[in-house]
């Protein structure tokens, strides 16, 4: 660096003598091992990468080999990879894949380039996907070379590349290799493609919901305008106007396309299920990918006329997944994918009945632990699915201690965990209602635990003032034998608070502690839920977003 050797060698790349160029390129390759030289080669002052572009391709094969080796050394650095893409190396390297002598080194460089999310989509603009697919499908050995398979995995993470991989029955050929040789990396490519189709369906669902929201807002505005002109309320103006509103509301709305890959997976679902059930204990990595692929299937991906409840019965999936969930039998990755799959299976009342009648819900609850945040989040997502159906809801709430576990998650730091836990509690409050609209025992428990979560700091502060055995608080009853409730006493009856020596007036509450009254400001407290008393759900006003 101090002697400007890199700059002098870069300037010498204009020579035309092959032997001299070979010597210069070899020298640069050895210098590129050191960070200082590598940074200098990527800088605008020297710009070695720009000068290398003219040698790819060139008529001298050995020079091309040396350039590829130099590019491979430089491609470990993100700034160098960005520079390679900027000077147009990507289409040139893809063309080199067609030439066998350069293929191995080119694949390694392309693999590094595909590691950047900003570069993945550029592969779909070249011939990279069809060439790589042909190399994978026609690979002579049972297991595809790691560099080639890793390049295919990275490309399949991009939506455009994944779509190209499914063309010309590409998915069928990939499934054939997985079924014949059990190649884990190729199965990971299949899983990434299933992730793409799952993402497409979610985008369509969100777009449809957004479209309906716009239509509803337009209808409300039009009704309000008509009511203002006539002097009526919007409710009185609704009759006889629905058809005309629907016709007018279609104008200018965003177009929502239908799901184009509806039967892409139909012929492969049964094959994937059989492979997963036939996996031995030594093939845990393959089982992870197969279960992950199944967890991305919706009912639109299943064979025509087939639903999840029929697959559960045909393949006895509840028993199969129950064995995998036995503690100590499977890796954490397998357990995680099982949780996702169970949540995906519980999508209709018939499948909910099958899951509730099995031991799956109790087996999932036994997995509850603070050690793995991912498993915890997926368990909460499963619980949320279970709460949508009567059978699974009763099994979850009354046969396990899931209610306490869900409530404990409300105060966690992880945002996603808090969100799903709050959604689960909202479902409990929505369904646990008496005929008169009053909340039931579980709903009252939800309110108490929410109060504990949202006012934890206040309760700790009050607890530090003295003995709390005889304190009375107006919002809820905390039994002394409940560890989470401490020594606080709660009652819904005003008479109880009146009969005690504590009371409340003007946003302040009085508590008894060791025979003395303590005035505490309660104006900033949150009950965690607002209940109108008429059976309608209150809105949560906590501190979580999204």
Automatic annotation (TrEMBL):
Enumerate composition-biased segments (Acidic residues).
234-252, 495-504
Q: Please name the InterPro entries in this protein's record.
A: ARM-like (IPR011989), ARM-type_fold (IPR016024), Armadillo (IPR000225), KAP3 (IPR008658)
SMART domains reported for this sequence: ARM, KAP
* A Pfam family this chain is assigned to: KAP
State the Gene3D superfamilies in the record: Leucine-rich Repeat Variant
Q: What top-level branch of life does the organism fall under?
A: Eukaryota
Bias category Basic and acidic residues: which stretches? Answer: 224-233, 467-478
Composition-biased stretches (Polar residues): 513-526
- Region Disordered, residue ranges: 223-253, 460-546
Quote the PANTHER family the UniProt record gives: KINESIN-ASSOCIATED PROTEIN 3, KINESIN-ASSOCIATED PROTEINS
Protein name per its UniProtKB record = Protein HGH1 homolog
Source species, please? Tetraparma gracilis
């Amino acid at each position: 660096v101090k002697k400007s050797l890199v700059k002098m060698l870069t300037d010498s790349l204009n020579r035309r003598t092959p032997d001299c160029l070979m010597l210069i390129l070899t020298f640069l390759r050895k210098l590129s091992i050191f960070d200082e030289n590598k940074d200098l080669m990527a800088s605008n002052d020297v710009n070695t990468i720009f000068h290398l572009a003219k040698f790819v391709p060139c008529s001298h094969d050995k020079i091309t080999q040396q350039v590829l080796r130099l590019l491979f050394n430089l491609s470990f650095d993100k700034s160098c990879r960005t520079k390679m893409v900027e000077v147009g190396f990507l289409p040139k390297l893809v063309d080199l894949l067609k030439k066998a002598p350069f293929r191995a080194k080119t694949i390694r460089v392309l693999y590094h380039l595909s590691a950047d999310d900003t570069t993945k989509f550029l592969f779909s603009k070249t011939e990279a996907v069809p060439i790589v697919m042909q190399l994978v499908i026609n690979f002579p050995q049972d297991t595809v070379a790691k560099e080639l398979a890793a390049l295919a995995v990275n490309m399949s993470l991009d939506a455009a590349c994944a779509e190209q991989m499914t063309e010309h029955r590409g998915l069928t050929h990939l499934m054939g290799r997985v079924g014949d040789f059990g190649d884990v990396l190729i199965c990971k490519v299949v899983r990434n493609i299933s992730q793409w189709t799952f993402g497409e369906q979610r985008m369509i669902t969100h777009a449809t919901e957004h479209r309906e929201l716009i239509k509803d807002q337009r209808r409300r505005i039009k009704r309000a305008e008509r009511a203002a002109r006539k002097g009526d309320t919007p409710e009185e103006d609704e009759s006889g106007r629905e058809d005309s509103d629907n016709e007018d509301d279609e104008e200018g709305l965003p177009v929502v396309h239908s799901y184009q890959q509806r039967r892409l997976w139909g012929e492969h679902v049964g094959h994937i299920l059989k492979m997963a059930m036939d996996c031995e204990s030594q093939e845990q990595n393959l089982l992870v990918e197969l279960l992950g692929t199944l967890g991305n299937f919706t009912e639109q991906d299943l064979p025509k006329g087939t639903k999840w409840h029929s697959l559960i019965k045909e393949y006895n999936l509840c028993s199969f997944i129950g064995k995998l969930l036995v503690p100590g039998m499977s890796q954490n990755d397998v357990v995680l994918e099982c949780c996702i799959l169970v949540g995906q299976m519980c999508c209709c009342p018939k499948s909910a009945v099958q899951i509730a009648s099995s031991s799956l819900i109790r087996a999932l609850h036994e997995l509850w632990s603070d050690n793995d945040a991912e498993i915890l989040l997926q368990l909460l997502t499963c619980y949320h699915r279970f709460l949508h159906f009567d059978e699974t809801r009763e099994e979850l709430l009354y046969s396990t201690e899931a209610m306490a576990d869900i409530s404990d998650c409300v105060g966690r730091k992880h945002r996603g965990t808090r969100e799903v836990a709050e959604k689960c509690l909202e479902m409990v409050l929505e369904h646990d209602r008496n005929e008169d609209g009053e909340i039931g025992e579980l709903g009252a428990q939800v309110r108490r635990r929410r109060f504990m979560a949202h006012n934890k700091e206040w309760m700790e502060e009050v607890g530090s003032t003295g003995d709390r055995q005889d304190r009375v608080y107006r919002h809820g009853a905390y039994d002394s034998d409940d560890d989470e409730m401490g020594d606080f006493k709660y009652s819904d009856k005003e008479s109880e608070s009146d009969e005690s020596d504590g009371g409340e007036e003007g946003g302040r509450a009085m508590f008894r502690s060791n025979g003395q009254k303590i005035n505490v400001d309660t104006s900033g407290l949150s009950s965690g839920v607002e209940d109108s008393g008429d059976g309608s759900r209150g809105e949560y006003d906590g501190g979580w977003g999204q």
